[in-house]
Amino acid sequence: MEAAVCVLDEDGIEQVAVAKIATIAGVSEATVYKYFETKENLIGQTLESAMTQFVEMLERQVRAAEGCRERICRLSILSLQDMARRRNVQRAVNGHLRWAGQYKSTIHEIHRRIARLVEWIFAEGVKEGEISAQCDLVIAGDMLFGALEGAAWRTVLQAEPRPLDEEAFVDAMVDQLLGGIRPAAAT
Question: 118 pLDDT exceeds 70?
Answer without folding.
Answer: yes
